[in-house]
Amino acid sequence: MEFTRFCFLVFSVFFIYNVCSVHGRFYDYPNVSRFRALSQISMPPSPAPAPSPSPAPKDDPTIDNVKNSSNDYAAGIFNVLSYGAVGDGVIDDTQAFKMAWDAACQVDSAILLVPKHYSFMIQSTIFTGPCKSGLIFKVEGTIMPPDGPDSWPKSVSKKQWLVFYRIDGMSMKGGGLIDGKGEKWWNLPCKPHKKGINGTTLPGPCDSPVAIRFFMSSNLTVQGLKIKNSPLFHFRFDSCRDVHVDSLYIKAPPQSPNTDGIHIENTNDVTIRNSIISNGDDCISIGAGCYNVDIRNMTCGPSHGISIGSLGIRNSRACVSNITVQDSTIKYSDNGVRIKTWQGGFGTVSNINFNNIRMESVRNPIILDQYYCNTKNCANQTSAVYISDVIYSNIKGTYDVRSPPMHLACSNSVPCTNLTFLDVELYPAQGQKILEPFCWNAYGALMTLTIPPVFCLLEGTPQSLPSNDLDQC
Asked: Where's the active site on this chain (predicted)?
């Protein structure tokens, strides 16, 4: 009897072990989604694939938010791990991001989740709309491109990395990091700091990708992200409207070439707020076709400051209006607030307000330059972008004594008009000597006595202005 019970117990244990292990293998099979068909991201989105299980990294048992459950899917969360992303910073996760985008794009209020504790390497990609409203691209982990020009696919453009095209009502946010890995791009022989004979740049390929570009999109919010070391501009908005940028942290070395923090072109109704930018070019640059731009509470520098321009390159038309920069600090930078235009351009820059700005050891705190040239061989031309109605108020702090604190160089043929100065106080960061401002063909008014005094500013208005320039915008 005892022997019979013993045999029955052994048989029961053997049966349970085999059944359960088979059941476990069936539901824990990893990375099923990596074998899905490749995404067609440039085409209209296809039906959303069902999410599949995603493994958490074995060396981090604390992560509890990376697997998509059926509840996540019902709530509209599309975790890139559920579409085959590995997130080790080496394996190409581009297709997983494309498929997650295709799925999220056709769901109202969807969240495309880039989870924390992972690093995702993505090739140059265009995320195309239109999508359903309320889409959130939530970056909690790290996103990075291929490592330098030699790792970039030969058949892919080197001018851009992540592009969002024809998107309406999207938010890009999160506490994660976008690492542009720009070091190898900055060292290309053609870059401005790589000088050859007679100060010219050296020959060779020069295209470098903008890290994140929004093109022909509207109702955009970019918030809370950290982005560093872009090969070229960090963010670029082209032909967009209703853009809201808040609480960004952008960082690149002071000598990194053309690494503008935020650049806007042909874009209107923009707010940029509460951000810290330190880089190798303009913190914010405003190109042609921009209007209704409000910039506040920025900390900028080391950098090249906050710039309108350059405008009018290659005899082009430039129209910029209703720009406000206020309640901000610019420190240890080549420039403070700047308007720069090329000779030969046409159009207008008007209704510009620089208010309540703190300068700390800035080389050119206030600079208006209608003779902008990035080489030594720019020809003199008579046509110019007309600049008028610019207010400089409550601008205080210190300047680097290598340059005058105010530089107002306006065109010989198209003078600047209606420049207003109010409560401007700029002192040398070192020494006691206060340098005199520089003015050329600049007309305006001093509402209060400035430090240093801008006695070179011409009063009233010029006798004549070329009407054809005024009628272009």
From this structure: 304
